[in-house]
Amino acid sequence: MEENLRLLAEKLGLSVRFSDAGLFKKDYEVNGDVIRFIAGSLGFNARTEEEVNASLAEIERRRWLRTLDTIYVVEEGDVSFAAVIPASRLNAAFDIIAAPENSGEGIFGQLSFRVSDTGERYVLDGKELARIDVRINTALSFGYYNLTFKMDEEVFYSTLAVAPRRCYENAALAGGKIWGFNIQLYSLKSERNWGIGDFTDLSELVKIAARSGANIIGLNPLNVLNHTYPEDASPYSSLSRLFMNPMYIDIENVPEFIPSDREDNLELIKELRESELIRYTEVYNLKIKLLEEFYKRFKFGKDQKRHTDYQRFCEHKGVDLEKMALFQCLYDEKCAPEWCGGWRAWEKDYQDFNSETIKKYIKAHKDRIEFFKFMQFETERQFDMAFQTAAECGMRLGFYRDLPVGVSADSTEVWSDPDLFIPGVGAGAPPDAFFPAGQKWCLGTFNPFVLKEKCYQPFIKILRANMRSAGALRIDHVMGLMRLYIIPDEGTEGTYLYFNFRDMLNIVALESHLNRCMIVGESIGNVPDGFMDTLRARNVYSLGVLWAERFDAGWGDFRSPQQYPEYAFTSIGTHDMAPLRMWWFGYDIALMRSLNIIDNDEAQSQAYKKRETDRWKLLKVLDNNGVWPEDNLRRGDYIFGEAYPEGIEEAVHRFAARSVSKVFLAQPEDIFHVEKMQNLPGVDRDKHPNWRRKLPVNLEKFETDIAYIRNIKAIRRER
Question: What is the Cα–Cα distance from 429 to 447, expressed in whole angstroms?
Fold first, then answer.
C-alpha cells in the first residue's frame, strides 16, 4: 500500500491491518481498494495519488477552520479544550463562561482558567493561526454546559460535556450478588396473549420472578421494527432505536378496548396463540386492525387526561417522533405489498425530510401520521406499567435493556439523516472463535466526523431512549465505542473504523449517571488489547458466558466459578448460542451442516469430536465443584452424548450462579429443555426461523413446573 494512502487511512481512523479473534490469531492486510472506497464514502476521495494528497491537505485544513469545536467531551477534574486563534492575538484578553445546559446563566461567575500556547501553527488564506490550550481550574460537576469563549470583543460558542470518571453503580449490587432472567419477550407464552409475548406478560413474569427471588429481568431490544413487513423480526435491525415496538402492546390493556374486540376474533387469537412459531404478519395485522379502531375511539373520545398525556408525549418526543411516524406512513404507501428497494428507491423529493414535497405530504396525511404516533404513545405507556410493576415488586435492579450496535440501513434513522451514516458500507465482524467466517450485519454506521459535528446528539438520544425505565443497559458489541468493522455493501472484505473512544466512553458514563443506569458491555468477539481493562476502570460491567468462560480462546477447560469476572453479568449462553440440551446432543452442529454453514462431512465429524471433548470438560468442572443435585447425582459418562444427564441443568445453573460475578441471568430455554436456537447468525429466515420460537411452557405454569422449581432452587442455593 502506498505510504500516503496508509497515512490517509490513519488520519481517517481506518485500519490497514488487523488480527482476528481465533484461537490461532490470523493477521490481515487490508486491500488498498477497500481503504479507497471507504475513504470516498467518508467524503475524502482517494482514487488516485493526487486525490489522496488533496484529501490529506483537506483534513489538515479542517483542523484550523474554526475557533472552537462544536463540542468538547472531558472528564471531571481534567477540563481543558483546544482553540484556534490568530497568532497575532496570543496576548488578547480571554474570558470563559460555562452555563449548565438550559439554565441560561453562567456558573461560578468568572471561571478560573489558564491559557497556554501549544506551539502549533498553520497558515490559512495568508493568515497565521495558532492552537492554544485552555484549562479550566474551577471544579465543574458532571453535566452538559453551554461554553462561551471570549477573545477581546469577539465571542465564540461551543458545548462542554463534563463526564464522571466512572459509570453509574446501582446500590443494589453493594450488598452482594443478585440473579434474574434473560428473556426474549416475544417468546413468552400465556393463556391470554394473542400469539406473541406482550407487556402484560412481562408484568406477570416480573411478579413470578420476584416471588422466586429474582431482582432483574434482561430483555431483548424492544425497538420499533418495520411496520410494512412484520416478518423482518430481528430485534437487532430496527427502524429506529429511539422508539419501541408496538407488536408488544397488549390489545386488551388499551383503554379504548371493549370485550367485543376480543369476541370478534376469538378463533384467530386461539390459532395464533397455539401455533408453534410466532406468525408475525397475522399477529401484527390483527393488532394493527384493532389499534386503528382504538385510535378513532381515542380521537373522538372524552378522556381529557388521556388526550393531555398524548399531547405531552408528542411534544416531548418532538421532531424525532414526527420523522418516525412519517417514515412509517410513507413506507407503507410506497413499499407495500412487495418490497420496492426501500426508501432509496423512492422519488428524490421523498428521500429528503426537509423537501417541500414532504411538507405537503405531512399535511395531506396528518391523521395517518398521528395514528403511528398514537401507537408509540400506547407502547410506551404499557412498558412503563411493566416497569412500575417491577418497582412495586421490589426488584432491586429492575429491567436490563439491550441497545443494538447499529440500525437497519432501511430505517428512519438513516432516511431522516443520511449524512450521519456512511453510504455504501455496513457494520459486521471479522472471523472469531464462534463465527469463523465472520459476519456481515449490513447495519448503518455512524460517520464519526459528522457525529461529533452534531455534538454527539444522535448517540446521546439513543442512549437516553434505551436507558429509560431501566436499571442497566447492555451495549451490544461494546467494542463499537472504539471501533467497528465495516464492509462495503458490494464486497466481502472490510476493515476497522475507529471512533473517538474517549469521547464515546465519556458520554456513556455521563448519561449513565444522568439516567441512573448501569452499563454492561457485550464483548464476545474480537476485543482489542487493553480494551476490557479500560472498561473496568470506567465501571462498565462485562458479560460472562459459560461457553466463553474457558481458557485458550474458548477451546480449553472451563473456568471455575471463582475465576469468573466479578463485575459482570453472567449467563450460560446468549440468544445466538445453542441452549444447553441442544448443545449437549450437538443438534446445533447437525443444523449448521444441513444449512452448509459447516460445508463438508469431515468438518462436521471434527465438530462432533470437539463437542465430545467439550462435554467431558463440562462434566469434569461440574464434578470438581460438587454442584450436582444430591438426589440426582451423575450416573454415567454419557459417551458420545448417548443420553442427557438428568440434573445437568440444575448442576450448570448452580455452577454459574456460584460464580463471583455480581449478576447471574438464567435463560428459560435452558430451564425448560429447549432443543432449538432462537437465532442462528448469518442465516436468513427462509432457512431458519430466527426470532420466532416460543417457550414450551406457559407463564401461568412456570411456578408449578418441576423443571422451574428445581432449577430456581439450585440457583437460590448460591445466590
Answer: 18
For residues 369-403, b (16+ Cβ closer than 10 Å) or e, as one string? Answer: bbbbbbbbbbbbbbbeebbebbeebebbbbbbbbb
Per the document, the length of the chain is 719
Kindly give, in sequence order, each residue whose CB lies less than 8 Å from that of residue 225, ignoring residues fewer than 6 positions away: 232, 233, 234, 235, 237, 238, 239, 245, 247
Q: Which residue has the cell 440426582?
A: 632
Instruction: Please state, in angstroms and rounded to a whole number, the distance separating the CA atoms of residues 178 and 570.
Output: 11
Peptide bond preceding 404 in cis form (omega within 30 of 0): no
- What separation in angstroms does the CA of 452 have from each of 45, 73, 577, 691? 21, 10, 36, 35
CA–CA separation, 470 and 256 (whole Å): 28
641: pLDDT strictly greater than 70: no
Where would I find the H helices in 275-411? 280-299, 304-334, 356-364, 366-392
Q: How far apart are CA 280 and CA 694, in angstroms?
A: 12
pLDDT in tens, 58-109: 999 999 999 999 999 999 999 999 999 999 999 999 999 999 987 655 555 5
Closest residue by Cα to residue 314 from 369, 276, 272: 369
Helix (H, G, I), strand (E, B) or coil at 180: strand
Q: Are strands 439-444 and 407-408 parallel, antiparallel or unpaired?
A: antiparallel
Tens digit of each residue's pLDDT (9 = 90 or more) over 8-65? 999 999 999 998 876 667 889 999 999 999 999 999 999 999 999 999 999 999 999 9
Distance separating alpha carbons of residues 32 and 34, to the nearest angstrom: 5
pLDDT band at 203 (very low <50, low <70, confident <90, very high): very high
Burial 36-69 (b: 16+ CB within 10 A, else e): bbbbbbbebebeeeebbeebbeeeeeeebeebbb
Measured between alpha carbons, how far is 623 from 110 in angstroms, rounded to an integer? 67
Helices 648-657 & 706-718, crossing angle to 10 degrees? Answer: 30
d(CA 166, CA 629): 40
Beta-sheet strand order (sheet of 113-124)? 80-86, 127-136, 113-124
Chain centroid, CA 468 distance in Å = 14
pLDDT in tens, 163-201: 999 999 999 898 789 999 999 999 999 999 999 999 999
**C-alpha cell belonging to residue 64:** 484550523
Q: How many helices (H) and strands (E) does the chain have?
A: 22, 24
- Pull the grid cell for residue 718: 448460591
Residues in CB range of 228: below 8 A, 6 or more apart: 328, 331, 332, 335, 336
How many whole angstroms separate alpha carbon 136 and alpha carbon 112? 6
- The strand pair at 568-571 and 216-219 is best described as unpaired
d(CA 399, CA 515): 13
Integer Cα distance of 156 and 113 in angstroms? 16
